[in-house]
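Batch job 17 of 40 flagged for manual review because the log was empty.
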Amino acid sequence: MLAHLIEFVSAHYVLSASFLVLLALLIFTESRKGGKSLSSRELTALVNSEQGLVLDIRTQKDFAAGHIVGALNIPQDKLSTRVSELDKHKGKTIIVVDAMGQHSGTVCRDLKKAGHNAAKLSGGLATWRGDNLPVVK
């Protein structure tokens, strides 16, 4: 199997090099798109030192079923009209939390465009719960 791969790469070095360059560009672009990812521990440290605000972008129903203590709930579909509510927190890092981390990167990008310092919880609330950290209802 490895011999076939080496044979292909040596026979098609331009194609292989192009693939690697495109792959590197894709990884670079995707990593910059969503901003910094934080672990549960980093989120806790920021919030405890009053340097962070948790922004839960899930629906009101999901938020009511369980959320991180002290989190502010602004559903993703309402964020564009309610972003001004975050202006009083400009000095803090806004940590965006969703269900599994799939939408928080886009919200971070939008918050950065609006002048906020934003990061996302890696893996979303699923990671938080997986780390056996508390949620409130």
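Reviewer: the log was empty due to a logging misconfiguration, but the result itself is present. Residues 13-33 form the longest helix (21 residues). Unflagging and moving on to job 18.
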